[in-house]
Specification:
single chain, 363 residues, 2 domains, 5-stranded antiparallel β-sheet, 10 strands
Length: 363
């Protein structure tokens, strides 16, 4: 089915004034379409979901329907238009459509006068990003996370990630184990630390929450004029998890002094200015709804997410580079070493991290 047919399925009956292919995503095919409706210009995002990556896209859309409706209910009327994504229902009442070729489509209203940022060198902007993801947690703090589908089973099950790495080391399918002894030893040394959050969840010491699971800064919409945050986007990986996962991955990605594949690990480490900026925004949002244990394990979340990614990169390297895309032959090994360097720096700064978190938590 062509896009014209998709427009009709989702009730878009105005005059189409233009269509642009958006290439800022790596998974789904995305189009921005502009319509003239009743004398007004309105834009929409039309997406074809990659069903190879997301095997059960109807689960994604079920999660999205529940979560966006809940967020909308928490917003004052004047902020509902731009404060949450609004997905369109197809003619059969579902918020998606499967065409005759089996392609899976969805559509939502493009948020006017919005912009995203790929870099956050300005601490004030990073604080706003922290507040946006913290607000996401706050708005969904009373949502029953157990009712959500698990889009990627075991995504942050660090114990299973370590078990898989151990199996790959034993098999040594690519004959590379002998060349990565220091990396294996480091990850083994901190395995207990990395598995703490999963153990606490299993014991009921941490509550299950709605988590975004892709807390990069470019998944936040900002007002292009005021730079105020509007909404958190890219909700495909919303599922049950821990607050520490979202916070920790944002710190791992946003407060690293280098790119996550920097070959010179002396350039890698935790930027404490960026760490504090994001933490201030995030913690001040969640401190009244988060449990004591959640606040006390935020720094561990950052360390855990970094160790977990190092495990995944090393596992893929030892398995012959089957999962992550590479730019050169030893890319996964470089990524592993970079994440290890970042984790080591975080571990050495954990007391400082905890002190900053406690300050903004009001402790």
């Amino acid at each position: 089915m062509d896009l014209t047919g998709i427009y009709k399925v989702f009730g878009l009956t105005g005059k189409c004034a233009g269509c642009t292919v958006l290439k800022n995503g790596n998974i789904n095919k995305t189009y921005k379409v502009d319509f003239e409706e009743n004398g007004k210009n309105v834009s929409y995002i039309i997406q074809s979901i990659n069903t190879y990556v997301f095997r059960n896209p109807e689960y994604i859309m079920s999660n999205i329907r529940g979560v966006t409706a809940h967020i909308a209910s928490k917003l004052p009327p004047e902020k509902r238009e731009r404060g949450v994504l609004h997905f369109l229902d197809s003619r059969d009442g579902k918020n998606y459509f499967v065409d005759g070729d089996g392609s899976f489509w969805r559509a939502y209203v493009f948020v006017p006068d919005s912009v995203t940022y790929d870099t956050f060198d300005d601490p004030a902007l990073l604080e706003s990003a922290g507040a946006a993801f913290g607000r996401f947690q706050l708005q969904l703090s009373d949502y029953d996370a157990s009712t959500l589908f698990e889009i990627i089973p075991g995504f942050h099950d660090t114990k299973k990630r370590y078990e898989k790495l151990t199996e790959t080391i034993e098999r040594d399918p690519a004959g590379r184990v002998s060349s990565v002894g220091p990396e294996i030893e480091f990850l083994k040394k901190y395995r207990g630390m990395a598995e703490t959050l999963v153990n606490m969840l299993e014991k009921g010491e941490l509550p299950l929450r709605v988590t975004h699971n892709d807390t990069k800064g470019n998944n936040i919409l900002f007002d292009k004029n005021t730079k105020n945050t509007l909404a958190v986007i890219d909700l495909d990986t919303v599922m049950p998890g821990l607050v520490a996962y979202d916070y920790g991955d944002a710190i791992r990605f946003g407060a690293n002094r280098s790119d996550e594949d920097e070959p010179d690990t002396s350039k890698t480490g935790l930027d404490m200015v960026k760490f504090e900026a994001f933490t201030k925004g995030f913690v001040e949002m969640i401190r009244d709804t988060a449990t004591k244990a959640e606040l006390e394990t935020l720094s561990l979340g950052a360390i855990t997410m970094t160790l977990e990614l190092a495990v995944r990169f090393l596992d893929d390297y030892l398995d012959g580079d089957k999962y992550f895309k590479l730019n050169y032959p030893e890319h996964n090994l470089v990524r592993t070493r970079c994440q290890i360097a970042l984790a080591a720096d975080m571990i050495s700064k954990k007391d400082q991290m905890d002190e900053i978190i406690a300050r903004y938590a009001g402790n």
